[in-house]
Write a sequence for this structure.
């Protein structure tokens, strides 16, 4: 491993180490948006979940990729057969070795998962942040230690950011500096879908009307609802873009008008959206979705695609109450709501959408987060508890 993996031009920047349970090259979402922006001010080390090293490898190592002058992706490669204690010890050694080569203690330690405490809890940064984008303990196969580790993390951090209103309400009484930063949107990127008649090859042959979804397909999806809509409206084509995770692909409903296209790049998403008559968010109502605030909601809208969602709390409160998103709880209601949505993609609705989206930007969110970090770094006083949205929260 090179002792100085960052180029000389950024060698004097402070270090931000981001500890993520998500891989950089998987679905492009909140961590990627924020860390890309952080990389203009810091040397960012994005430490992602480990991979198993090739067979026969006896020693742990870390694979590093510099994807911009200020952004390094670090992937631990661990020998097979390690128990959890050994795996944590190996990651701690690799992390310390990488950070030692930067000749500077981290200015910011940024946690996306409490599980990282097992190998990174010893880090002493000027500011420690917990960016809570999901309630991970509600997901299938979640570690039973997550609640305990989260309590420890909340005692250790200086700032807590939450990715949605429900998460904010659940965390705000558990720490003295909790701040609401709901999902933002790259309007220019998704706005490319408006007025475009280009369609990717794997979608071009699918007739309309197309009702689309993009994102991870996992235990949060209401597959029975999706199947019922497909059966009741065989004239609609349901286009499903995204990777299947934590569920058996054999459990996916199979119908002539359901199209499972798999993972596609973030850069290509506007091309898919440009060919959709409506967007669908068919989330199940379960422990894994109780606190979610889907990033895709403003992304659909920025593309000019009308959206129908199941009654996810944050979607209802933040979008449906203003009439920007349709809500439906069963197949019959979903069909009615989608029909209504397809008929409403008109200029007044888009003007209302654009007025809302004008207040939502990843750039603005990052700048507000950085201001809070600067306050902590500048002195002993801590930021006060953030007020709910509509008062002084970052919405």
């Amino acid at each position: 491993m090179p002792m100085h993996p960052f180029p000389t031009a950024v060698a004097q920047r402070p270090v931000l180490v981001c500890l993520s349970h998500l891989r950089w090259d998987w679905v492009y979402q909140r961590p990627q948006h924020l860390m890309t922006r952080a990389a203009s001010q810091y040397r960012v080390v994005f430490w992602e979940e480990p991979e198993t090293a090739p067979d026969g490898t006896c020693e742990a190592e870390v694979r590093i990729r510099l994807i911009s002058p200020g952004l390094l992706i670090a992937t631990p490669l661990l020998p097979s057969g390690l128990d959890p204690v050994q795996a944590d010890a190996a990651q701690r050694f690799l992390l310390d070795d990488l950070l030692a080569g930067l000749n500077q203690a981290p200015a910011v330690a940024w946690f996306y998962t409490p599980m990282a405490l097992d190998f990174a809890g010893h880090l002493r940064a000027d500011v420690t942040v917990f960016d809570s984008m999901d309630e991970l303990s509600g997901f299938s196969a979640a570690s039973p230690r997550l609640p305990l580790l989260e309590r420890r993390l909340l005692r250790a951090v200086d700032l807590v950011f939450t990715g949605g209103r429900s998460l904010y309400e659940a965390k705000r009484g558990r720490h003295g500096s909790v701040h609401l930063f709901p999902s933002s949107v790259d309007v220019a990127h998704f706005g490319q879908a408006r007025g475009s008649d280009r369609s990717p090859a794997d979608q071009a042959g699918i007739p309309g009307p197309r009702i689309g979804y993009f994102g991870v397909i996992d235990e949060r999806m209401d597959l029975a609802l999706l199947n019922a809509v497909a059966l009741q409206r065989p004239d609609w084509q349901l286009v499903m873009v995204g990777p299947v995770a934590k569920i058996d692909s054999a459990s996916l409903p199979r119908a002539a008008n359901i199209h499972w296209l798999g993972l596609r790049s973030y850069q290509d998403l506007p091309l898919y959206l440009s060919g959709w008559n409506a967007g669908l968010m068919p989330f199940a109502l379960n422990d894994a979705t109780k606190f979610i605030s889907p990033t895709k909601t403003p992304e659909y809208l920025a593309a000019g695609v009308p959206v129908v969602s199941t009654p996810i709390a944050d979607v209802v409160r933040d979008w449906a109450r203003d009439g920007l998103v349709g809500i439906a709880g069963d197949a019959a209601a979903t069909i009615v709501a989608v029909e209504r949505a397809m008929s409403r993609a008109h200029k007044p609705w888009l003007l209302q959408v654009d007025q809302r989206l004008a207040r939502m930007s990843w750039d603005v969110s990052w700048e507000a987060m950085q201001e809070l970090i600067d306050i902590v770094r500048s002195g002993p006083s801590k930021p006060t508890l953030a007020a709910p949205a509509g008062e002084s929260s970052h919405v």
